[in-house]
Model the fold of this input.
Amino acid sequence: MGELREGFWNRPLGELNRAEWEALCDGCGKCCLHKIEDADTGEISDTNVACKLLETGTARCSDYRNRKAFVPDCLRLTLSIVEDVPWLPSTCAYRLRAAGRPLPGWHYLVCGDRDAVHRVGVSVAGRVVSETEAGPLEHHIVEWPAPDMDLLEPPVLAETGDDE
Done:
């Protein structure tokens, strides 16, 4: 599938191999939530209803490799469509890199901590319900709060050294 090159997340999306493309995902889970599109206006509303494969406590797909077999309309995000998916969150690594913007400091590739996405409030882990339990989507429309900007950058570690 390809190896991960050092600093690959800073490369243009078109230069990434498949392994790097997959590793770019921050694991927020927002792309795995149902959306509602207004038939008259085309406006897209977010819901807190997750695909049946999304583990609601971790925001990870329970069968990512075989997801299309269980959820035929699951979108496979690719380079050719990434700029045409209007409902990707503003924090999405694919959206940011497609626009030539850097990854945020809380992204695990930048800070080395896979849980940072949860701590800063970008992840849906623990805040969603499975479609198998939800009922009508219209009862689950939400507006996700903006991430806590004070938490978006990892803390700067104090420099160590001899203070004489």
Notes: Strands lie at 33-37, 44-50, 54-55, 60-61, 129-130, 141-142. Residues 154-164 have pLDDT under 50 and may be disordered. The chain has six helices and six strands.
